[in-house]
Amino acid sequence: MQNTGKARYLASKNNWQLSKSRHFRCHHSGNSMMRLRRNPTMLKKLIALFSMAFIAFSAHAERFKAGEDYQVLEMATPLYSDNSPSVTEFFSFYCPHCFRNQALMEALEPKLPENTRVIKQHVSFMGGKMGPELSKALAAAELLKVDDTMIPVIFERIHSLRKPPRSAEEVRQMFLDNGVDAKKFDGVINSFAVNSMVARFDKAFEATGLTGVPAVIVNGKYYLTPKTIKSLDEYIELVDFLLKK
Q: Signal peptide position in this chain (predicted)?
């Protein structure tokens, strides 16, 4: 009986403490609400703030729509094995639209989150026999860390100067004319690393199921089709939206 009585006492004590704790929390909230009721200006500001946040969220959610601003690619295997955020541009040096798209990509890149990978992949199906040669040129430029220099040079030569390279030797000379060491270029242009990169370019583009360039893909699965986008800021906002999906 003593044990039973002690147990009842402890249970009663615990229930009282729990009740007291609950009362304290409710009382605390009650005071906050009372303060808000006594200060209608603060209450109105809070309501306005929450309303604006809800409207902004709704507008952002409705602004970008699958089928209009982007398409979700249906691929048997992911474009990339990891889940790091990425923006991939498939392009051809021979494509005039790709040439014009470079200004957009250059403006976009500094606005991306710091951990976002920007990946350029050249397709070989344009330019006849020189298509694969320029895919190798991009791969070599990336390995030699001169892609920021050589990509604009090649585009300018084809579309501004109207003097597209007509042989592998002319491609080589472009690199040399822009400060690349001849031995370093010769050491990589036909290497296993370059040929493997070109094969990956082609395989990745084929996996997307797309047939044309330029093609910008976010996180390996969202293909941009920005029909409603009217400015660079909106384009950047769309990319940021998809990076976070």
A: none
